[in-house]
Task: structure prediction
Amino acid sequence: MTALRSHRTKTLWMAALVSVTLTSLLAASTAANGATAAKGDTYYTPPTPYHNIGNYDPGCSNVNVKAHYDYEGVYSDKNATGTHGQAFFHKDETTYTQTWKLRSTGEVLLTQSGNVVFEEIKATFVPKSEVPKRLIPKKGLVGPVYRFTATQTGDETVRDADGKTLVASYGTVTFKQLFDTKGDSKPGGRELSLRVANVSGPHPPMNLCKLSSQIVS
Result:
């Protein structure tokens, strides 16, 4: 599984859904400068449902396929306690399915489905002076800067046209993201870095192009 996000890394989440894909909260603490927020108090964005369907070209070099996706879920953003309205915890619960077909005949090759919960659980203030120079954009930092901890928990399965399981993944992935909130008191801003901090459970690679090619051959 890969990172999900709506107001900061939504592009990563979408890429996960249409290509590879797709905890408990920490105890609350007060976050002044240099401290950590691990609790959201009020909603900035209340729980909001969404549903999207569409088609895309996977761009496989070894097999000519087309794909259809259908995903729905609920997302929300909460103000992170003690961050003076500058940090927000995003939560996204989604269920999705995508079906890959041979373009020439419309034959179904495989289906990928999953249930994923992405949740930011911690925000730690980082002074600008402690941000590595290699991560600072040309126009500089606006701030305040926070290091977010997020978890993505769920499962996903790839099956062939007969329903046989080809690949299965489940468990939890923990991410660390350094983020310039830009001080505008709303979700959004600039990502400075993103890394996987911990992986729990099996998460084998899901190369759908390779799997489709193997099915055709």
